[in-house]
Amino acid sequence: MQDLLNDILEEVKPLVGQGNVASYIPELAKVNPNQFGIAICDTQGNVTKAGDATTGFSIQSISKVFNLVLAYIYYGNSLWERVGCEPSGLPFNSLVQLEYENGIPRNPFINAGALVVSDMVHSRLISPHVALRDLIRKLSGNPYVLSDVDVAESEFEYRARNAAMSYLMKAFGNFHNDVEEVLHTYFMNCALRMSCVDLARATQFLANRGFCTITKSDVLTGDQTRQMNALLATSGLYDEAGSFAFKVGLPGKSGVGGGIIAVVPGRFSICVWSPALNKMGNSLAGVAALESLTRHIKWSVY
Amino acid sequence: MQDLLNDILEEVKPLVGQGNVASYIPELAKVNPNQFGIAICDTQGNVTKAGDATTGFSIQSISKVFNLVLAYIYYGNSLWERVGCEPSGLPFNSLVQLEYENGIPRNPFINAGALVVSDMVHSRLISPHVALRDLIRKLSGNPYVLSDVDVAESEFEYRARNAAMSYLMKAFGNFHNDVEEVLHTYFMNCALRMSCVDLARATQFLANRGFCTITKSDVLTGDQTRQMNALLATSGLYDEAGSFAFKVGLPGKSGVGGGIIAVVPGRFSICVWSPALNKMGNSLAGVAALESLTRHIKWSVY
Amino acid sequence: MQDLLNDILEEVKPLVGQGNVASYIPELAKVNPNQFGIAICDTQGNVTKAGDATTGFSIQSISKVFNLVLAYIYYGNSLWERVGCEPSGLPFNSLVQLEYENGIPRNPFINAGALVVSDMVHSRLISPHVALRDLIRKLSGNPYVLSDVDVAESEFEYRARNAAMSYLMKAFGNFHNDVEEVLHTYFMNCALRMSCVDLARATQFLANRGFCTITKSDVLTGDQTRQMNALLATSGLYDEAGSFAFKVGLPGKSGVGGGIIAVVPGRFSICVWSPALNKMGNSLAGVAALESLTRHIKWSVY
Amino acid sequence: MQDLLNDILEEVKPLVGQGNVASYIPELAKVNPNQFGIAICDTQGNVTKAGDATTGFSIQSISKVFNLVLAYIYYGNSLWERVGCEPSGLPFNSLVQLEYENGIPRNPFINAGALVVSDMVHSRLISPHVALRDLIRKLSGNPYVLSDVDVAESEFEYRARNAAMSYLMKAFGNFHNDVEEVLHTYFMNCALRMSCVDLARATQFLANRGFCTITKSDVLTGDQTRQMNALLATSGLYDEAGSFAFKVGLPGKSGVGGGIIAVVPGRFSICVWSPALNKMGNSLAGVAALESLTRHIKWSVY
């Protein structure tokens, strides 16, 4: 396994730094693009890693996976009354579909869907961000996971489009709490700093039918885990979901911080990270590393 | 395996006949809804079956799978210059996305995409329908597979929307042959009559890394097969692709004739058939049977 | 003229109360639907009236006309850099076009356009609502025109869709001030209470090449007045703009409070009011009264 | 009046040839862009002209006005059951709105609307093109008006988008005749060659409450004429309808051949022509000439 990661590292080195670091908020634009890390966590909890795998980065949209876990815990399958499970076919931050489909977002991994999930969690918890952080600390076994307040504030300042989506859903009756408060929590969640090792550990339950080897407990049921992976496979990489399935063939979730988590069901979870993004907003070297991985292990879910 | 199919048959019996038979063309509307068949073909070519598994039905959009095989054979990966590999997020026969995306259909399993694939095949073959029929005859081992000319003519008569899509793509330069001719071929392909057993056999190569045990030859390469399955997983069931991934978790393709093929990679291919459709246009009892199947075998790709 | 108004009053009486009072905010829903007023103000400033022409009502979107006057005064033709002058072809509160056209609203009479105009006025004035109210008091010669704070607050509470539009424009850089503050002003403007007589007087300058006979001064230049009337003719009645041009043939602006102002260039301004609305959101009896008017005077701009 | 036209000619001279001649069909691209003509026909039938006012050109979409006259004659107001009277807010050849609005075009001056009107006329007449040509010959007093068959054939060859729209409407049940046949007629109508003088005469009835001074007979009723002019004012210049109302303020209809007809109700009809088009597809010098005209006569409908 270590050889595999070393090989991948060697292979993608020329790509690291290609593409562009997310620049829509000043704080994210400051990151050095010449970094790359990869970590794998198998179903026994063994971690293998290479490159900058212990460097913390902003997990951004990868937080949507954990937020959905919270929603599963508090709502079960009734959560699907307020958000769909279909691919969106439109940019991750589009309002068009929301308007045509009465404020019900297509899936929980586009922004509108994640916002509605945040709103749901808000209705049940007093400190939803703390709850999410604590969940992540337990799942990753790292009690020091923290949110980068500067990033969160920078995102809040540039909240206009997310605010627009939230208010539009509110206009359709599908957003119940105060928009600004939910956005605060949402951005705090996005701004969590974690390393590849942290994230590989924290998502290992997805490769293990919902069972977390670190906490020795079920995070989701087997059925829920299959559903989560199915959603990650069809909708986890924004507009690149189809081509990611096509080229990589694993359930996965990316974030504009340059991280991507992926799952080989029954075997292991993976986290790659490299800050520079391709045109679709996903880590350029990260996608290449995952392509290389499935080529090497001669395995994809398909 | 036989027990499994018998159990599934028993389980879905109450659902058979629920929903509505496709009525947009008179010929299809004549089918008796109270039929149900299922067949499985493993990677050694062994077939297990239950119910009306040897009754022929109109394969309709399932023909798109075989047509894409032809395009792979004649164009290789260059085929993706004229059609995408992303989920569409819109109804299967929508023209909106075509107009916004310059006549490039989202994927080869929505109608516009299948029409462009037909147009491509037309540019290379003198008798594209005969070529497709012969391919299917070989893959299924059934030399008597034939198209139902009454169905094809009925579809041609009601061709308006498919003609509109073809002409719109022509306006964008992404349709090269005569629209009426391509539509004739397209409808002849859709009107092919096959049974569950035929289709399970003919798609067995998808479960077998592209190798067909009947012809003892490679239909697609291993990579192409993974790609095909990925596409089937993200885009094979129209608007229900996401929820099918969610509930069933297998690559699959449905047709308005009530057939659905699905793939358990490395193990077997499946074909279910029952003519009455749910609101999304997929066989109601068929989807239920596949859900039951993955529950029984405790396995999905995710 | 008095006979004309009496005839119209008689003619539309059976229609008064038909349709539905605007119910999207509780305050507006309380109005008695069985009211109808009409007033005409000629270019000498003479007013003729019939029915409930001195009863105050919520002017709602008619305020957009006066707000645009403020924008003309402070920005001149540079105002058109931030808002278009084309019909929208979509519902008045749609976000779809905004997203496709980079946050530039189609015209100043749909909500998004009026919000951008409010934002512009906000950038130049400390008390934009007071400025608007004072302008209206002068133009109408009624120093007691006031805003109904209950209505404004009720609208603010249900601000979600307008907030969504404002934030979406902010995301595109076409909204400069604080969203909540601009919305406060916007709703205070909408909640101004005026009678038919007040509004006929206050819009008389539109029939008089921009000259207000009450203040004896130019409100707009002749060219600006022609432009304003052209805009009112193509975009003043929401989705009914075309059919209003078709049936009535006068520049006009409606509000969900049931008021409609219209202009016979060179001759007079008109205000009709009746609270119950047709399906397009315009006063049912009001539209009928204006149809009757142009039929009686055998004159439209076309 | 002659002085006026001479002044306008002088004023727009520097603009003649600016912009681009329509190039979507080869035949139209051959026209010399350095031509400009203008003609006015008053309600007594007196014609004043300047520049290349007697040179024939392809009237293209201006034919939609006459085709709508035929529909009025054969269907009366029931024609509005199959086509709307609202501005479209989308490009003249868009299919998006058709799909969202069930195949009912927004108005008779966008392509889809004109195609439906052609289809209607086809249902009533054996030789619809001959009928249109004869109508135009009578109205213009020029018995030699003919269609340019080369242009019509060239347009038919590039018919894809118009065919797409026709088939889409057929799919919604709003197109009854054979698509290819209706397109033949449609393109023959578009390819009619007329001069500014011909067109000013042929549209003079629009300035004269429907009465044609040449044939001494009513073409449309007064009400129908008002409706036609209202439609021309809100929808006659494609995407530039609003800004044309804004700048020129007259009902008008443009064609990609570079012609524009406009109406000063009660006074006269105008036809300007110059082949080079602005970005919106309307004659650049033609629009400027009409702006100059309304500035000189200090009059618009608003």
Automatic annotation (TrEMBL), chains A, B, C, D:
It comes from the Bacteria. Substrate binds at residues 61, 111, 155, 162, 186, 238, 256. The keyword Hydrolase applies. GO terms for molecular function: glutaminase activity. It catalyses: L-glutamine + H2O = L-glutamate + NH4(+). Keywords: Acetylation, Hydrolase. NCBIfam families: Gln_ase, PRK00971.1-1, PRK00971.1-2. Belongs to the glutaminase family. This is Glutaminase. It comes from Alteromonas aquimaris. The gene is glsB.
